[in-house]
Amino acid sequence: xxxxxxxxxxxxxxxxxxxxxxxxxxxxxxxxxxxxxxxxxxxxxxxxxxxxxxxxxxxxxxxxxxxxxxxxxxxxxxxxxxxxxxxxxxxxxxxxxxxxxxxxxxxxxxxxxxxxxxxxxxxxxxxxxxxxxxxxxxxxxxxxxxxxxxxxxxxxxxxxxxxxxxxxxxxxxxxxxxxxxxxxxxxxxxxxxxxxxxxxxxxxxxxxxxxxxxxxxxxxxxxxxxxxxxxxxxxxxxxxxxxxxxxxxxxxxxxxxxxxxxxxxxxxxxxxxxxxxxxxxxxxxxxxxxxxxxxxxxxxxxxxxxxxxxxxxxxxxxxxxxxxxxxxxxxxxxxxxxxxxxxxxxxxxxxxxxxxxxxxxxxxxxxxxxxxxxxxxxxxxxxxxxxxxxxxxxxxxxxxxxxxxxxxxxxxxxxxxxxxxxxxxxxx
Length: 428
Fold this sequence. Notes:
With about 425 residues, the chain is of the alpha+beta class. It has helices at about 5-25, 55-65, 80-85, 165, 265-290, 295-310, 330-335, 370, 375-390, 405-415, and strands spanning about 95, 115, 120-125, 130-135, 140-145, 160, 180, 200, 215, 220, 325.
């Protein structure tokens, strides 16, 4: 059995075990969490059978028609060509060495899984393995795929249904979404969730982030869990010292032959932390709007919009203990993308001194997933955004959005966001 085949068998076994546990719970009279959707009973969603129209599904069609071809390279196979076809920058590479993938047998600190991302696609590959991918369909949420790393006349991504065993749970708000974990990890790559198991996003302090991940760049003033392994399983706390080891290039840790980058950029990691939960929140409110009965939808959307907007405006963002500096060029690439307002400002401009973004409003407001929201959901989000940005919301937790922050966000949105409601007027 090949290493790739073994990885698939282990992944399937893990998923079957999870399904068996879930079936036992329900069979014993247990209830699934209220946040869990059964898409089989929701024709308005129809996640399992509706043909997706995400960027990878579109790429598959272009490959079939001959409009796009992929080049197969020694070492990394189709990876570089796929990234170029999907406009995913190599600078976005981040690397995880914990065995938290279907390809666990391949992954360890000397052979991490490289992860690349854009606004709508996440691509992952461990050296010697196949390509894993998740792409956001504007209607359905995250769709999961695999691409075999062997030369084919017409390579095709194959949709994988088993991934939702882990990627659709209470931790993903009951919808298909990304799950970003931080766990203490042994020297062989095995995770130790019993010693710490964090699901992280921009609200998480740095001290909880990136266990089992490589982190290149510099974080002043505080420790994170990256770049470290548990050497003494009886004393796991010895891993988390006053500072995690600084690392500027992955070449200092392992042979990077075959990898497209020698970085696991800290700035890219921070953007990734924010984006994964933001994407899941957009999927959740979309499903709420389409699956709820007419009598329940207003109340559901009111609550869901508050959660989406609080996250979108970074109301609970963990403050940075000091300046962050990336190492791969991702900061420059990301900040240059725009769109920009008449004064040259953009929601993609990174701060990295005290918080992630210079103007604390998620750039995901430009995503196809946002524009494709049902009208009632999108309107509920806009109404809640305006309550906060206009100052109508006077709750103490919103004071961290300064008058300058609110004014700048409104001005940028008025110049750059098509379809913005007319009631978004300049803020004094």
